[in-house]
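@channel sequence for tomorrow's demo:
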Amino acid sequence: MWIIYSLLVPIVASASVPGDSANPNTKLLDNIRVYIHEEASPCEDYHQYACGKYATKHSDDPFMEITQMLDHKMNQKLVQVMDELEQGSEAPGFNGSSLEAKVLRFYLNCRDAPETMRKVQRYLRLVPPDGDLSWPQFSAGRPWPKEKFNWMETLARLHRYGLSNVLISAVVTQKLANRREFIVDLGMPIFTGENDHLKGFLESFATLLSLGVQRYSILPLIRKMRKLENSIQKLTDEEDDDEELQFMTLRRLESVTGLEWRKFYEIIVDHQIPLNREVQVKNLKYFRALKRVMDAADKELVANYIMTRFIIHLTGDSREDNDPIECMKDVRRSMSLATNFIYQDRFLAPETLQRYSNEMETLFDHLRRRLLKLIDHNHLRLTAQQRRFVSNKAKGITINIGNVPKTPDLRAFADQYYKGLEMPAADKDYNREHLKLLAYKTRKWVEQLNSGAPTVDEYFYTSDSDTLMSSSPFYILRENQIIMPFGLLQEPLFVPDSHNVFKYSLMGFVLAHELTHAIDGEGIFFNTQGNVDLSVLEIVESPRFQEGMECMNRNKTDYINERLADITGLHLAYGAYFNNETGTPFQVSPREFNHMSQEKIFFLNLAQFFCGDADASTFLEHDEDKLRLVHVLSGFPPFDRAFGCRRSSSDKCRLW
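structure tokens (generated this afternoon):
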């Protein structure tokens, strides 16, 4: 507990973690009923029936579905903590070097920095392409000295700030055969993400204008940059089949491609390395073709292209607004371990966190036991050795609640992690501090080339910024671990005093979905230790496995593993609760259910996860929620019985 809290007004009870004098079951049922559209048919359009009034109910709210709502509630709490810290920072005895002080300073940098310290052009002043070379538009009317520009060295310098997918994909990653060891992986870039390519014409024009490029030269520059990017993208399409993973020394790679990889590597790691250092590489044909394109391209054009992509990367990693909630998102993106520690320390007393953890572990244990029964039933007709492999994978999964390491002294761990980070209080310079945090996070990741991967108990996720500021759960393939962010431990998703039917239908489904990813079409290739095991090909290529996956993809999806996790997750959550076996979590209905069947409550509460009014384009790596709900319930007899639907069960698909 922080000493300064005794001097400050406590956060109001409504902002605390679940707990209210009202009956929790009644509250959850009321929450469900608010969204029901009685005129819709649950058999013909269940999403409209269960969620039809969601958009009206939340028309003025800054979120579009349940995880965004949980994010917003968590951000509100953290903003109030920042307000308390800001007041406390004026008091004598405030520790200006503490973890809380560092978080507060970045938050205030975001919220209060003058406009001159938030201009994107300042990023380029702070990060030139080389020590004695500025970006082309800053040459003050003189010819830009393009002979000083080296595109690979510039890319390596920008890699320090997390830019790793421009012209070259350069990623520090775990070795496939040994997750404890890291290696630099080199390959061709991808162009699929929102920030993986140039923006549209109007946005590109505005960006270049804000970067100080002369207005008259912007239009031809955009055309040339697009032409360059198209030529690079064409190379990636042509060499798309050149995916063989190879391990080779930098000496050999330089010889094969003609590119200066040693210098590139040394700038990334910030120290000298021998030419016999080994890297992991794909797409050798691409690199040879890339050299020809770069040798022929105008250096100033290449510099402008890299510069523009760098700015796209930086703006994509920050929030444009200095609104307190938006700044809290920024802090969570950049200092996730620190904000998770602060949230735990402020809102989850040790006994409360232990209680919640026990609830989650019990729930997960029932779901896992249900999965192990499915594996033992052997629908796929696996050999004894194959069943043992899959069962051991499921038994080895751990849960990380809060995305924090499992250490008895989280403060000491977090203090040590941020020990080398200096956040001056003298001024508010958002651009500088944003770059500093990006460099700090990237350096911590690159250092694993020498230190190796953390243990399972030391692990916390740091990679994707959007994931770090979200309350969505996720499965970490190489760690065989499910991350359950603290934001999930809030109403209506998590209500520990509620009836078990609510717990299994919503949190149970969420956990079961992530559990399934351990043995989906991708996760199954990795064993309990997180290392690749190609013997699993016999399972994946078996007729029954193929038939199960094809069945689930009859209505085409680009996210087949997510559909598998949805469908299997429902089977696990429903079966774990209603299986009527010894030790079942099934509970009798209390009077507040008012004769509504538990089956109906189960499916109505399940739908809460899919209720929302988000546009289909906002869903990343998943089908839209309405489509997901349709497929998860398609051909599921318990749903049809609960709502009296007469539907063919021919759509029923299963894998495990």
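heads up for whoever presents: The CA atoms of residues 563 and 628 lie 7 Å apart.
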